[in-house]
Request: fold
Amino acid sequence: VWSGPRNISTSLMRSFSNRGDCKVMDEPFYGAYLFKTRKNHPLRDEIIKTMSTDYNEIAKKCSEEKFSGQILYQKQMAHHIFPSLDLRFLDRMHNIFLIRKPEYVVRSFNEKVESFELEDIGIKQQLRIFKYLFEKTGRAPFVCSSSDLLTDPEGTLRKICEHVGISFNKNMLAWPEGPHPDDGIWGKIWYQNTNKSTRFINGGSRKITLTAYQKSIVEQAYPYYHELDAIRKFYLKPSN
Reply:
């Protein structure tokens, strides 16, 4: 599942983890991303020490690793992937995309990271990965949004399962409160809200106020978001 930060991607990982037949992998490229970019994220040094920083080694692990369970769910951050990385490892897996309106992403991300750019929120890289897959297969990968999961969790989860060829499981609708043993060590910083949750909860749309700095990134993000959202809306159309 290709996401950006603050897209409720951790909740979706919790949902799949609770199936009982699914092993989850949490942001396997994060350590390599921090090592290569020297980004000053919380727990940076600890993350780098505990993870591989070799992109090719990680890509091989993602596409070839033996795992327990019938399904391997990978929570991937699109901005962790660099243009120089060969994307052919994606050919061995099902890929879907999770998007969120940029204003919500930018506002939430800025609460954790003081200074960042468009490239740090993943939407540009999501579109690049999407186009690679589309050109490779001739079929548009499935795209959904955080709002879809919050307003219609069962319907959206059923569509995700359908598009990757697995059965829907009712256990996906809820999960135990608290951290998960497969969480990355960064979970204690980034997953505080998810750790308090037990299901997808629709809090309703809310008006948010952005600073001029945040608005500039949102404006840059929207062209990429609109392209992916158009595919999402295509998949939302009822089938005849």
